[in-house]
Amino acid sequence: MGAIARNRSGAVHMYEKARSKSDDIPVAREAAQASEQRAPVMTRAPEQGRKFPCTQCGARLDFDPAARALRCPYCGFAELVDFSNDRVAELDYAAYIQRLEHLRQQGRTGSEWQGQRQIRCGGCGAVVIMDRSVATASCPYCGTHLESPAEEVDQLLAPEGVVPFAVDKRQAIQLFEHWIGRRWFAPTGIKKMAALGQVQGLYVPFWTFDAMTYSRYTGMRGDDYYVTETYTERDVSGNLVTRTRQVRKTRWTYVSGEVDHFFDDVLVCASYSLPPWALTGLQPWSLEGLVNFQKQFLSGFRTERYTLTLPHGFRCARDIMDAEIRTLCCRDIGGDHQVLSSVDTRYVGVTFKYILLPVWVAGYRYHNKLYQFFVNGQTGKATGSRPYSWVKIVAFVLSLVALTGGLLGLLHWLMR
After folding, report:
1. In angstroms, rounded to a whole number, what is the distance separating the alpha carbons of residues 156 and 304?
2. Could you check whether the bond before residue 40 is cis, i.e. omega within 30 degrees of 0?
3. Non-local CB neighbours of 278 within 8 Å, separated by 6+ positions
4. Are the C-beta atoms of residues 295 and 148 closer than 8 Å to each other?
5. Rounded to the nearest 10 degrees, how much is the dihedral formed by the CA atoms of 33, 37, 41, 46?
6. Which residue from 123, 161, 139 is spatially nearest to 290, judged by alpha carbons?
7. What integer pLDDT is reported at residue 141 of this predicted model?
8. Is the pLDDT of residue 68 over 60?
9. Please, what is the angle between helix 93-106 and helix 310-333, to 10°?
10. Is the pLDDT assigned to residue 5 strictly greater than 50?
11. Average pLDDT of every residue of the chain
12. What is the pTM of this model?
């Protein structure tokens, strides 16, 4: 996606906007094609997005990332999910803010979440959306049993798009085991937790924002130049000698200009429960895998409700945009040094999407302190927090001291 910048002389420059792409996105296996048979006649269609029971045994179907289908965990029956190739629609930000206010005044809810309930975790405060058929569950972030009274899902937007899970639970547990196994100074006890399978699939809410920006700036441009300076000093014999040297100086010039830049899919996490270090560790995401939202994708997984509102999300997106705009302004100023005095930006044609991104979460406690492990459900990238075993650290230090002492003793013996 190109970004247009106009400099002070009116020339037009093109700045290439870098888009993050993962090189290690696992490709899900294609599901086997069902044998051709006459389609049954449906006299009455059920509501869109309903979770269907297995036609073979009646159990609830869960979404299988490997098969990219709804699969019965008991008899193995699979029902293919339609992956829409249509582009996920961008929504006009200003118009939607007005619509939200109108819906709020009328007390209306998002139709896509009707029949769902939400529970707030008493341990970490995360708000988890669950199907009515689920009687009990634990928080995917901290493992606390969700005992708070269930509430109706109200005043909640319906997602526009979702990136389905491409990493299944077995792979997530293997990544957990591998990650734990490489933590040398972790207590031995926590390594056993990987075998317990305490890993939950969670769809985390995100906002994405597009905007065309027009930024006028003022500032100073600094250009370095060198002058020859003469000085005297004493040499090794104590005699005064005259020498010359090059001294760098900076010539400052007032500048002003305008930078026009289009932002595409600025990603903002809409959850306060996902720690900032985890959010950084799970990146990058490839939104090329984004498909139109279908409730079938949520089957068998938890879904977190967004707690960062749309207006607040746009303020966070503006902070991200402003940082890049200032970088572009400095690039447009040129020279060796740049100082920005003011930047005035107009945001035009702002659109947004509410999307869900897949994350595997394992929360565990060690000595009553919470530690978390996360896996990007799209790419398999893992990050986490862990405790340290001071016994192992002390033993390692003592081993190094003993080894160093032995080597010094050997060196002393050889030099005798």
Report:
1. 12
2. no
3. 372, 374, 383, 384
4. no
5. -20
6. 161
7. 72
8. no
9. 160
10. no
11. 75
12. 0.69
